[in-house]
Design brief:
By secondary structure, the protein is an alpha+beta fold. The chain has 31 helices and twelve strands. It is 65% helix and 7% strand. A five-stranded mixed beta sheet has the order 9-8-10-12-11. α8 (171-181) packs across α9 (186-213).
């Protein structure tokens, strides 16, 4: 049933996209429809979930809402649609752009799907394994997915810190909760939306770039530069390659944990300071919010570009509505849209001398974009950013040790070096488009938006999106001017291509390799998986467990039940002070009096005892638990005590 629901939403999205973009190419309608369908699935149940909880009823009502909207939209647009007979007889003939688009999307999506399959609860001998990039983040997402589905409360709390509202843009996870609710396995529910999001994100970058650059060659160049981003980080692994032991230094790329040419902070006794994370394996694969945020914002930017620069004023309203839904998909994407809209608004007003038509068109965009976003910020976002660690002024915080210019040159590479000549070469329109990216970069250099300055990469990569449009335009123009030097320009092109993509290429090989048997990482052994099955079948959905706060916590991630406190890696970055609870957990595992005191105070239901608890708490009072409470589950290293 979950698969049917998912595909039906995609169909509804395609119908809506056709009604909005009926005269566009089929590839663009299918792309826009796929994005719209996923946004519908993420959002349609939300108003009803506030009233009835996250359950079947809310989803049925949400589906009815989307169907009604689609019918109303059809009635509004039917007079402007091509005749049905002509539509049915019109054959799609793919042109050059379509061929390159489909080839690029196919190759990149295939790589991502292969990695996603091997990284997502990959079963070997009864245990679940994963790859390098998902070893951390995937557990957090699994916990949100399972807890929303199992507990059904809305708005949801952290199940790794019960009682604290989930101040996180969680719709990229709840979309999988919906499929899990309707019968998909956890692995399928996790993977299916991501598979579509991969294809739609790759297609989205292509369509946005083609709208701006107008040429297949320039679009393909921008596509390669964005998804194979990486600077000169590879040089740290080529150092001393010919010397004795040099090969071992290079081979670390394929074997060491997070020592890659695009994400390599520590280098022996010094900081290498390479943190230009690859868009695919460091962002889209592990960070679901980034994936779904980019998928969505690429469509909104595409619509807004057509509205502003192609005089398609009828698209302002659609861009505003979709834009207003971005904050709880990914807040950084909403910031990207807001900054871009500000720059393009100024351009429109100056170009049209603040004409009434221009102002009214921008109101169609701005009102829904702001009005729809306000409650999202009020309910979910403001609670997090009120912490002093958020939204602080700090210049150059992303750069840990290097001179400012050298940091950006070695991290971004050729694209950064060519920015100035590319800007001078660009036409007026492209300069205005890029101005939005330049403002994003300046803001990111002075303001840190989360606890860790590293997280500003989500905005820096949106600056990079605009930068690759500029540089791709310049590179292809240079290639055209060298037409008389046929052999030379081929050699130059090949050298530039290698210089721009080598770091990303080796990083992507490393990520693929990390998902292979023998190189992958165990997340949950067979005892933990068996205990998760018992918990799902025999405990209340909101039961509270006493466990260690390991990031791959079986109870929190695989069953959706509550644990008293989860991993500090997750909670600290969200502004949650977990230290007090961590101390309580430690005292409960090591002191009988403290155990009895807090058991009564907080209403614990079960103790989960495994190798994590035994290895992290010296003086564990396991004998005390054994004497006083029944063991309701025991297999291998895992015991569960009923302490109600």
């Amino acid at each position: 049933m979950g698969y049917v629901l998912f595909l039906f939403y995609i169909l509804l999205g395609v119908i809506n996209a056709y009604l909005l973009l009926s005269r566009e190419k089929p590839t663009r309608i299918l792309w826009a429809g796929g994005v719209a369908g996923l946004i519908f699935l993420m959002w349609s149940h939300v108003p009803f979930s506030f009233l009835f909880g996250f359950g079947i009823l809310s989803h049925v009502l949400g589906l009815i809402l989307v169907i009604v909207w689609t019918v109303v939209f059809y009635v509004i647009k039917r007079r402007h649609l091509p005749r049905l007979r002509g539509l049915l007889h019109r054959r799609w003939k793919p042109d050059k752009e379509d061929v390159f688009l489909l080839a690029a999307v196919f190759v990149m999506s295939l790589y991502c799907i292969v990695c996603l399959y091997s990284h997502t609860l990959y079963e070997i001998d009864g245990a679940y394994y994963t790859g390098q990039c998902t070893y951390g983040d995937m557990n957090f997402h699994l916990g949100i997915i399972t807890s929303i589905k199992e507990q059904g409360s809305f708005p949801p709390d952290y199940n790794i810190f019960p009682g604290q509202r989930l101040d996180y843009y969680f719709l990229s996870d709840s979309v999988s909760s919906s499929l899990y609710l309707f019968g998909c396995s956890l692995k399928a529910a996790y993977m299916l939306p991501m598979i579509f999001a991969f294809m739609l994100t790759f297609a989205g970058l292509w369509h946005l770039a083609y709208a701006v650059l107008k040429r297949v060659g320039k679009t393909l160049t921008a596509f390669i530069l964005f998804f194979f981003n990486g600077g000169f980080g590879l040089m740290y692994f080529l150092d001393g390659l010919k010397a004795e032991g040099g090969a071992e230094n290079f081979n670390r790329i394929f074997t060491a944990y997070y020592e890659t040419p695009t994400n390599y902070v520590n280098s022996g006794s010094r900081l290498s300071n390479i943190c230009w994370t690859n868009t695919v394996v460091d962002m889209m694969l592990p960070q679901r919010a980034t994936l779904f945020g980019w998928m969505s914002v690429f469509l909104v930017l595409y619509l807004l570009y057509l509205a502003v620069f192609e005089d398609r004023s009828e698209l302002f309203l659609a861009a505003g509505i979709l834009g207003g839904l971005l904050p709880m998909i990914q807040t950084y994407s909403y910031f990207t849209l807001g900054i871009t809209a500000l720059v393009w608004l100024i351009h429109s007003c100056v170009r049209n001398r603040f004409g009434k038509k221009t102002l009214l068109s921008w109101l169609k965009f701005g009102l829904p974009a702001v009005i729809l976003a306000i409650p999202q910020f009020y309910i979910w976002i403001f609670g997090a950013v009120s912490e002093e660690r958020f939204l602080r002024f700090e210049f150059n915080a992303y750069n840990a040790t290097d001179h400012w210019l050298w940091f950006w040159v070695k991290n971004v590479g050729i694209v950064f070096i060519l920015l100035l000549p590319a800007f001078l070469n660009a036409g007026r329109r492209l300069k205005i488009v890029h101005a939005a990216g330049a403002l994003i970069f300046v803001i990111s250099e002075f303001i840190v938006f989360q606890t860790f300055a590293y997280d500003n990469n989500k905005l820096y990569l949106m600056w990079y999106l605009f930068a690759v449009l500029l540089v791709a335009d310049f590179l292809v123009d240079c290639y055209d001017k060298l037409r008389s030097m046929k052999a030379a320009r081929i050699v130059i092109t090949a050298m530039l291509l290698i210089a721009c993509t080598a770091s990303a290429f080796f990083t992507m090989i490393r990520e693929y390799n990390s998902g292979r048997e023998g190189s992958n990482y165990m997340l949950y052994n067979k005892d933990h998986i068996a205990s998760a099955e018992y918990i799902r079948e025999n405990t209340e959905p909101d039961a509270l467990f006493l466990t260690y706060n390991n990031h791959n916590n079986t109870v929190a991630c695989l069953t959706g039940r509550n644990i008293f406190t989860g991993s500090g890696t997750f909670l600290y970055s969200h502004g949650v002070d977990y230290n007090g609870r961590a101390e309580i957990v430690k005292s409960m595992f090591t002191d009988a009096a403290a155990f009895e005191k807090y058991r009564a105070e907080y209403g614990f239901d079960y103790i989960y005892l495994s190798s994590y608890e035994r290895s992290n708490y010296t003086g564990l009072i396991e004998d005390y638990f054994e004497e006083r409470f029944p063991v309701v589950f025991e297999q291998g290293e895992v015991k569960i005590y009923d302490i109600r």
